[in-house]
Amino acid sequence: MAPQDFSIRSKKVLLPAGETAATVKIETGVITAIEDHDAWPGGEHDRDIGNLVLMPGLVDTHVHLNEPGRTDWEGFATGTAAAAAGGVATVIDMPLNSSPVTTTAEALSLKRQATAGKLCVDVGFHGGIVPGNAHRMNELVDAGVRGVKAFLCHSGIDEFPNATEKDLRKAMPVLAERGVPLLVHAELAHDMPPPPGYDPRRYADYLASRPPSFEQDAVAMMIDLCAATGCRTHIVHLADAGCLSMLLAARERGLPITVETCPQYLAFAAEDIIDGQTEFKCAPPIREAVHREKLWDALAAGLIDMVVSDHSPCPPEMKALETGRFDQAWGGISSLQLGLSVVWTEAQRRGHPLADVVRWMGANPATLVGLTHGLVVGHPAHLAVFDPDAEWVVDGSTLKHRHPVTPYHRRTLRGVVRHTFVHGRPAAPGVGRPL
User: Fold this and answer.
1) Average pLDDT for 381-399
2) Cα separation, 146 vs 406, whole angstroms
3) Which of 7, 21, 300, 326 has the most CB atoms around its CB within 10 Å?
């Protein structure tokens, strides 16, 4: 393993003030100096990466690593290896789909114990709100959770039932007092009558089963609860552009509400999904291209704060790939390793610089969960070396996460992560730390 003390220089170093040629000095895993490009000492362990971009490692605050209990779905070793391969230096693990779910301090302790020797990147943890555990919010915050997650609809696993408005009214004032964000899966779902000629393989029929009104009703409720309690409220994986006007009005009222979206909603469109392609199933569903473009507009305007993966893997047989039935397939997309390349591919087509992508996928998620970010003296040496011009074709079988299923298979992307450093070391098992 390489020593922690070294200097790395590039003609393209992405600093908070902008891109410049510079040398970054690292000692004991911390950035200790940022100097002129020519100050590079050129020692045995120092690195000159030429025209490759040196940028801060990304932060993904919405990841399902599924350990302990469901390591046949993912796991700390494979999930954090995928993160490192994608330039992500820190992930925050969701309270499901592990077993036990992280709704108590004891469960959080078990999860931390399960990380031993496995982490390629730093991993923090969200707790969860389920019916009957609102009294545990202080316990979870004291134990170190970075946020608390609630579902407003069925989560997909029975161990993590959806919270009701009554549950949230009990929990949110406590979270407001403690300054911890509530993260909300914002769909108020109910059974929809099947359309004429319903076909469980037809993507349009799956899309109709989770209409935009599910998201809109949930976002409206959360805006009201945010206003009533003062709790920092974070809407996860926004897919419906019809919610944006409500969220803009809430922001203009000064409410502490933030919003994320995910690569799949920025890269895909419902019109392009072929019937039976259950690898595209997620919830909320990937909507039509008009939604995708409006999400990009909102991201550019700052109304959507961040882009995170919602990496939610499962064994291939749970995706119903052989039958192509959306009603039987697990709703989740594996994209932890691919997020930077996916978003950069789409962003540069729309004229966004890499600095925008790093803000959406690094600085803003870090702010949400109270972490430092950026190439700044005194910060942890979490770095990524990125080739923004290299093109590559995704092969699911070569990805680091446990299973090869991904809707990005055979998609041409732009941008390749060449190296990721965590605490000044090349990312590898045992380098990452539980937060």
Assistant:
1) 97
2) 28
3) 326
